[in-house]
Amino acid sequence: MRTFSRLQQPRGFIILILAIVIALSGCTLRLRPISSIPTIDARATNETKALFINLWTLADTNQTLFGHQDDTFFGVGWRDEPGRSDILEVSGSYPAVYGWEIGDLELGRPTNLDGVPFDTMREKIIEGYRRGGVITISWHMNNPVTYESIGSDPDDPYPGRSWDRTEAVSTILPGGSNHAMYRRWLDDFAEFAKSLTVSGVPWNDEEHLVPVIFRPFHEHNGSVFWWGGRNTTEADYIALWRFTVQYLRDLRGVHNLLYAYSPDARFMRGRDRDYSFPDLDTFRTAYFYAYPGDDYVDVFGLDYYVNAFPIGTGVDGSAGYQSSLDMLVQAAHARSDLKIPALTETGGQRWPDPDWWTTFLYPALVGTRQTQKGQVAYALVWRNWDETHHDGPYPGGSSADDFVEFKNTRIHFEDEIPFNLYTWP
Fold first, then answer.
1. Does residue 255 belong to any structural domain of this protein?
2. Which are the catalytic amino acids?
């Protein structure tokens, strides 16, 4: 097992140094009023704007938060047990970022496509926020053309689902045959987002909305989902994204969202055999395929799984993984408006290496910070379902001991978030 004794300074010392670094590097920013923070929603709530600038500041000062999908609902060997979390039970802390999924909300069902009741999800979102954690929501939206066929074939779970590649994007754009229905689907999400109300937290005693990093239409550069790749056109994808933002923000008045754009690294063109990009321009060309524009995106995400590297090919992939994250950070820093770089999905269900956390993920997250400013603001691994399908550690699992070492690095969990993310300055 790799150790990090030279990096493992006392936690209080690290937080003190971080506070000094942030104070020095962000002093100019902190002179700005909160209303001037450049979220794409000028009317975003104070907590949402504070989250934006604080995540940007963390990334800019080489700090990364750790996140986990469905953390407090799913674990290996358990489901929805109060207070439980595989991450907590292995490391002693909840993750700093919580991912949730709202697929099937648009169908009026009481549970999402994985069986999580939306009422329970709402409660757990609020619980995580009360502890100071960050909330992100993805949406595996069902196919607007074929959704009525869901469950029609017991041997094929895909008909009607987000993986159903029947062309649909053009039908839900303005003037399309399913546009009115799509607006109703967005109405359902708007109501859910507006239902995330909380009061009595240390940073705001009054009732307010929980900020959410909203990540729709992810991995669009591949053809896995009906909204991506060969299943639509670049122009239609851009139009869909822009309409979605405008409808939620401008027509429905949803002001507690940050919008995350997240291509899939597997489908980015121009990579070498080791999955690295020859230069930043090649990375940018691939990354910005169907990019909706700076006025419509707050977070520059990247979905990058370890199983992108086929077993048996002799491809290690670690250098390409690290360089891709470095280039993502550079791409975010190059924009005229502030953008937050993030590893929005990662993991490795096959776990070829029980020391993956410290020998693969950690070096990729800290990257080449000796020569480059910044790293991703957060890294989120996907859910733990069972012993054969999990992207996080679990008690007794092969990577659990290494994950404890990973927790003792400069990656922040919920108990180590160095300052309140929801206040400014």
1. yes
2. 219, 345
pTM, two decimals, is 0.93
324-356 residue pLDDT tens = 999 999 999 999 889 999 999 999 755 557 899
CATH number of the domain where residue 387 is located = 3.20.20.80
Looking at every residue in the chain, the average pLDDT score rounds to 91
For the cut 60, the answer to whether the pLDDT of residue 395 exceeds it is yes
- Angle (CA) 316 321 325, round 5°: 170
- With respect to residue 399, please indicate whether it lies within any of the assigned structural domains: yes
> What angle separates helix 46-60 from helix 11-25, to the nearest 10 degrees?
100
Which tokens hold the place of 322?
């690290």
How would you classify the pairing of strands 74-75 and 78-79?
antiparallel
CA-CA-CA-CA dihedral for 248, 250, 255, 258, to nearest 10: 60
Q: Is the pLDDT of residue 100 over 90?
A: yes
The number of folded domains in the chain is 1
3-state secondary structure of 364: helix
- The answer to whether residue 383 sits within a structural domain is yes
User: Three-class SS of residue 382?
Assistant: coil
Residue 209, domain extent: 11-416
* Nearest partner of 248 among 40, 107, 104, judged by Cα: 40
List pLDDT tens digits, range 221-251.
999 999 999 999 999 999 999 999 999 999 9
Which residues have a Cβ under 8 Å from the Cβ of 219 and sit 6 or more positions away?
225, 228, 262, 263, 264, 267, 303
Counting every residue, how long is the chain? Answer: 425
Average pLDDT over residues 356-376: 82
Q: Is residue 369 part of a domain?
A: yes
